[in-house]
Specification:
homodimer, 141 residues, alpha+beta, Arc Repressor Mutant, subunit A, Dna Ligase, domain 1, 2 domains, 3-stranded mixed sheet, 5 helices, 6 strands, 21% strand, globular, DNA-binding
DNA sequence: ACCCTAATTAAGATTATTCTTATTTAATAA
DNA sequence: TTATTAAATAAGAATAATCTTAATTAGGGT
């Protein structure tokens, strides 16, 4: 997903283009390691010395809701990080030693959520799933 | 799980009994709706006017790690809540309208985590899973 | 080009949670 | 009972994230 694609999606949904938003998207589409809000702020400080954290959080929330970025580390173990989503809905394996994250090959929830929810007559809106442990580099044995 | 059982587990693991800890456990074993840290503090204010939030958070963390209490609302949607664990490891359906939570009948992760992790040569330590949506009372249709 | 309006912004307050530090205390051994 | 020590505590600082408010601005229509 490149910058143009993201901007097109935003436009279609009626969001405005602001310089701040453009730059945040710019940083994210570059890829690489998932970024924290703090890191994004640091990277954007020269261009927007008064960029407020709230603007970054708000923009990220919009992008999350549109499925453009995904979130890693909800679990409160470390600071939440964000990265451009690689298309399909998916979850992460998060290493509690080095902090790196790895995409799961597939999302095991689709059928399961339906089944579990049916039992409780519960209308599923979203689900959160994350596995924490040690990655191949960090595992001891 | 009653208070004695909890205290026995703590004793076995070498934790100390403090009046604060006893009271926090007392409130939790009563059952009922899952409690937030704020609610716990309010309920304990008359007995311990200077109880610090940190003490509550610390005690809850210990109890979580021992599997004695479980955590609801990790997802950052609302304040995290805690309740005595009903034995087996499990997850929750959380209503985004009324905020109530419901236990899932089983944990769908056991086999899945193993499979997913194997593919990545990842050693699983724990996982987080939560379904958000509307409960039977709150769903519109 | 100019105006209008709803969306977006910065700033700062607020809340939830964790961390640091110095003090207190529970459990254990003498 | 007293002394010892490791664990637990309160207080307050620090961090992450959200909310409130008033000012600014992008985009659409004139």
């Amino acid at each position: 997903m490149d910058k143009q694609q993201v901007l097109t999606i935003l436009k279609d949904r009626g969001y405005k283009f602001t310089p701040q938003r453009r730059e945040i998207i710019e940083k994210l589409v570059k890829g690489g390691e998932p970024l924290s809000v703090k890191e994004l702020l640091e990277q954007l400080r020269d261009k927007f010395p008064e960029l407020s954290p709230d603007t970054v959080y708000r923009t990220l929330k919009v992008l999350c809701n549109l499925g453009i970025v995904c979130t890693i580390g909800h679990q409160g173990k470390k600071t939440t990080r964000y990265k451009i989503s690689v298309g399909l809905h998916h979850h992460h394996l998060v290493c509690i030693s080095c902090g790196r994250s790895f995409c799961m090959a597939y999302c095991p929830m689709e059928g399961i959520a339906r089944t579990l929810a049916q039992q409780a007559n519960f209308k599923v809106v979203e689900h959160a799933f994350e596995i924490l442990g040690y990655c191949s580099d960090c595992r001891v044995n």
